Amino acid sequence: MSIPTSNFFESLGKPIKDEYGRPIGAVASFVVRPNGQVDEIFVDHGDGEIARYASEQIKINENGATLFSPTKLKVESMCNEIPLIWRKDQALKGLLEKKRVPLELSEELHNAFESAYNELKAEAQTMMESIDKQITTCSKRIGDLNNALVNLEIEHEIGQVNDSAYENSMVLIQENMRCVKTERDDLELMKSKLSSLLLDENVHQMTMPPVPEEPAISQETEAASSSLPEPPVIVYVKNVNTKD
Asked: Which conformational region is residue 25 in: left (phi greater than 0), alpha (psi within -120 to 50 degrees), or beta?
């Protein structure tokens, strides 16, 4: 569902967070089509960089905006499209078996479905590899945050860090840890969904059924027919009267 343009404009200057609650900057500007539809938004990350994002990634709320990762949007799209294409191909097979669709047209449609299906499955495989890298990055960040916690605990224990600074830093690190763990769990769930689609390949074979043929006469039927007796020959004899 498209977001009203006015909502985008009202978010100008407001903070924007990622889907896990981490602040990433503020809405700076927009790319607007001649028809008034917002195509992209510019986000000021607060580090001197302004980046642009597709409007489909943005959800506007009263407190600002939320930016969703393109990975999640793509995975959700694939999880809908791949089964849909397979179901359409199965429906086509059923229509062909019922002789409700011409053979030539059914082959053309099947090839189109199969091409789109295989392309999406290849994209799903590539996406899984990308997700694996993102999971590895999250795991490394969790390790770094654990390291930061341990060092903070040690320095606080020996009196190098006062209680106030310790508590503030602890909140920051723990909140970041929560966000990263949530992101990693989310990525693992997306990977699991894609893996299920790829593992269904042996079940969801997109092959056309054989063209229905007229039933052939079995050998038993032929043998039985040949063993039947020949039909009787009826001879009609005309009665002719003769003179002596």
From this structure: left
In this structure, the answer to whether residues 181 and 145 fall within a common structural domain is yes
Q: Is 208 inside a domain boundary?
A: no
Same-domain status, 98 and 186: yes
Q: Of 43, 68, 93, which marks where a domain is finished? A: 68
- 43, 75: one domain: no
Q: How far apart, in whole angstroms, are the C-alpha atoms of residue 133 and residue 141?
A: 12
Residue 107 burial (C-beta neighbours within 10 Å; 0-12, 13-18, 19+): middle
Tally the domains of the chain: 2
Helix locations, the chain, DSSP H: 5-10, 70-97, 103-157, 163-199, 219-227
Please give, one letter per residue, the 3-state secondary structure of 203-243. Answer: CCCCCCCCCCCCCCCCHHHHHHHHHCCCCCCCCCCCCCCCC
The token pair at 18 is: 């990622």
Predicted model pTM: 0.74
Nearest-angstrom CA–CA distance, 41 and 49: 14
Whether 210 is in a domain gets the answer no
Tell me, yes or no, whether 34 lies in a domain.
yes
Per-residue pLDDT of the chain (244 residues; tens, 9 = 90+): 444 566 778 888 889 999 999 999 999 999 999 988 889 999 999 888 999 999 999 988 777 899 999 999 999 999 999 999 999 999 999 999 999 999 999 999 999 999 999 999 999 999 999 999 999 999 999 999 999 999 999 999 999 999 999 999 999 999 999 999 999 999 999 999 999 888 875 445 566 555 545 444 445 544 444 444 454 444 444 444 544 4
